[in-house]
Amino acid sequence: MSGGVNDAERLARAALTRLTEPGDEHVGRWLRQLGAVELVRALTGAGPPPEGARPDRLEGCRARAQTLDPGADLAAVARLGGRFLCPGEPEWPGQLDDLGDARPIGLWVRGSANVRLWALRSVAVVGARACTDYGSHVAALLGSGLAERGWVVVSGAAFGVDGAAHRGALAAGGATVAVLASGIDVPYPRGHAELIARIAEQGLVLAELPPGGHPTRSRFVLRNRVIAALTRGTVVVEAEYRSGSLVTARRARALGRQTMGVPGPVTSGLSAGVHELLREGACLVTDADEIAELVGSIGELAPERRGPVVPRDLLEPGARRALEAVPGRGGGELALIARNAGMGRDRTLASLYELRALGFVERLGDRWQLADAASTSGTPKPPGRRPPVRRGGP
Known about the structure:
alpha/beta, Rossmann fold, Arc Repressor Mutant, subunit A, nine-stranded mixed sheet, three-stranded antiparallel sheet
């Protein structure tokens, strides 16, 4: 017995991951009504069939039952240093319960971290497999930036955006979780075998399929619901209109999670799906700070975005008005500048002398004109380089 789940239920749930497909709501309903042990009996012919079960479904389950050995599956995972996690155990991430009858029967896990605790502060970063260099770069930046801020990066270990996000988190010495559409002992894609092994060492690898399970198109789609439910929010970096990443994001939105998208060129088909998601109400994000602001706790605010500050931005209002009132060509006398500024002569004169000390204007006899640098770039000319000024009254 472990955390409210006895050995019989653990074996039965492990058997169900081999007898049935992930995310089957009919199976979820039967499991809720009958319990794991009785459902295994019902699906394998050892007991009455579940209510509403079609003959072809029962036939398929009984065919799979010919090689059923949940004890061997549990032993195989244990040899990998893994475990099988069931609902009701202390480590079970409760947010997966939001999936209702589509909730995973159990999770096959590799990695020593606590799944429930890591999921509490996690963000999914997903996107196109055939992404652009831009998409790969952005995904890696988001992965590393989120990891540096103490967030767990969750993705599907696929080529493209997924892999870049995982690598970004790993490079920052952070936490990352790969949710596979295969068994945890079957790295897919094969080209990411080394990456998935690194994630298992430094983070977590999760799967609904038992050892030896191979991915199919439908299993990839169903896997996405786990990524959406497990995390606080989903960020899509690049995606075409029919991308599975959009399925993840829309499922996240339906579950009440934050849905975010990174914009790209409007001429790129790989950004078209993200832009559609943004039109549907997803939040536009450009970096890890903005993601953390949306999914984090009170006070996790992104820094204020401002353009560069130029010297004239720091002037007090009177000096700024006087500077704007100095004619651009040839300058002008005090009376003209005061009239242009809408200020009295004394205040205008005081402001002009302040501007002269700062290098914004020059005085030539009775006229005031913009310093050369001020008239071209908005930056004052260094005071030491100004020409000598004739002494005299205003």
